[in-house]
Design brief:
- By secondary structure, the protein is α+β, with helices and mostly antiparallel strands.
- It has one domain (about 1-175).
- Helices cover about 30% and strands about 10% of the residues.
- It contains five helices and five strands.
- It has helices at about 1-20, 35-50, 50-55, 125-135, 160-175, and strands spanning about 60, 65-70, 95, 100-105, 110.
- α2 packs across α5 (about 160-175).
- The longest helix is centred in the first third of the chain and has 18 residues, at about 1-20.
């Protein structure tokens, strides 16, 4: 029975992610290959194919289901949605907030970070902090800090090329700043 519930939950999550496609018209024009503009465009492309919006962009309900809120792109956890209930260790369950900006599982409760260029996001981060967060799983890219918690798939990004990391960083630094202080991670039983 648990396997059926697991597969049903996974199927529902996949449908939610599919319904949340970003509706941003992409027009790529020719720019000098090594320019900052080219790096930003590459970063925007990478954010799209890496599906960062699924977790880091709050959703709004439309006639076609949930869609990214264009006024809060990449701003992280939405404090206006109900939190998932904390999960006790070893239950095998993971619950997401309705807009997928928070998750609760055996690791505790984690909240999608604000990735915008605002100071409450990553606006005051250095590239080295960003690199450490993305490739080493360090919270705020700080040595000795706690690890980034699930569902952030930082392990999948360990082999990103330096130029792709730079492009991601350049794009995120160019985004519309959204002030949004995301709650701190809560360990199990907190």
């Amino acid at each position: 029975m648990n396997k059926i519930i697991y597969y049903l939950t996974a199927a529902i999550a996949a449908l939610v992610f599919a319904a949340c496609e970003t509706k941003v018209k992409k027009e790529y024009t020719s720019v000098p290959e090594n320019s900052k503009e080219a790096s930003i465009k590459r970063g925007e492309y990478l954010v799209g194919i890496m599906d960062c919006h699924s977790c880091h962009t709050p959703k709004i309900m439309t006639e076609k289901g949930p869609a990214p809120d264009p006024t809060r792109l990449l701003s992280g956890y939405n404090p206006n949605v109900p939190l998932p209930q904390p999960i006790e260790k070893n239950t095998g369950w993971v619950l997401f907030a309705p807009d997928v900006t928070a998750a609760s599982g055996p690791w505790g409760t984690s909240y999608a970070a604000n990735l915008t260029s605002d100071a409450t996001g990553i606006g005051d981060w250095s590239f080295e902090q960003f690199r450490k967060a993305m490739t080493e799983g360090k919270y705020r890219g700080i040595d000795g800090s706690r690890p980034l918690m699930p569902p952030m798939p930082w392990q999948a990004y360990k082999s990103l090329k330096p130029e792709d990391l730079r492009a991601l960083f350049d794009y995120l630094q160019s985004t519309q700043p959204v002030k949004n202080i995301v709650p701190a991670y809560q360990p199990p039983g907190a």
